[in-house]
Amino acid sequence: MKRFALLLACLTALPVWAKPAIHWSYEGQGSPEHWGELGDEFQICKKGQYQSPIDINQVIDGKLPPLGMNFHTDTQTIVNNGHTVQVTVKDSDDFRLDNDVFVLKQFHFHAPSENHLFGKAFPLEAHFVHANKKGELAVLAVMFEVGAENSALKPLLAALPSEVDRVEVMKQRMDLAALFPAVKHYYRFSGSLTTPPCTEGVRWLILKQPVTLSAAQLAKFEHALKHANNRPLQPLNGRIIVE
Length: 243
Prior knowledge:
With about 240 residues, the chain is α/β, with parallel strands linked by helices. The protein has a single domain (about 45-240), classed as Carbonic Anhydrase II (Roll), CATH 3.10.200. The protein has helices at about 1-15, 45, 155-160, 215-225; strands spanning about 55, 60, 70, 75-80, 85-90, 95, 100-110, 115, 125-130, 135-145, 170, 185-190, 200-205, 210-215, 240. The strands form 3 sheets. Strands 3, 4, 5, 6, 7, 9, 10, 11, 12, 13 and 14 form an 11-stranded mixed sheet that branches. The protein has a two-stranded parallel sheet with strand order 1-8. Strands 2-15 form a two-stranded parallel ribbon. The chain is globular and about 45 Å long. The termini are far apart. The model is unreliable at about 1-20 (pLDDT under 50).
């Protein structure tokens, strides 16, 4: 009996190990076509009916209201997490949508673009991830095309960590307003996260007008990412795209 009690005490003293995170990627066995098979948490990546990204076409004129944005944001940290280059923010910018306020939490990049505009892909796409007080998400997407150098990207590219998962403090301020086109007309649709667990119910706003970055700036993104990090286009399944 004493021996059993001692064994039980030893077992209860053992650390409780957390379930290991599911490995996913953009290549090989963990690539997008296999995400839904990697674990129960990712089932919606395969079974969901309102997945992102999509090709913006067959648009309905819904007379969407202007997108009023308040830019009072300062960047905080930057990391290359192996999936994307992501920047967290503080004193976040916000905008009103559906009589609610959505506040910027982070933004990150995909090269090439995930969403397409009338069949056209872009070399880079930025996703500005906002949330309201209930935790509901709205993503503003901005397309980049190669052209003039983008001065707003200089502090970000200068701070790119040399190692994956190494978090660096952003030492220079970024003018986030300069990452958006002057005219903020947009397309809207209901979709999902474009990475596992592919959660649906995300409000997507795709700005119609792209901004530019230089070929050298694009090369720095591509070098940091090592590989394309765009999920393939997903079927609309009857969804409506409004402008």
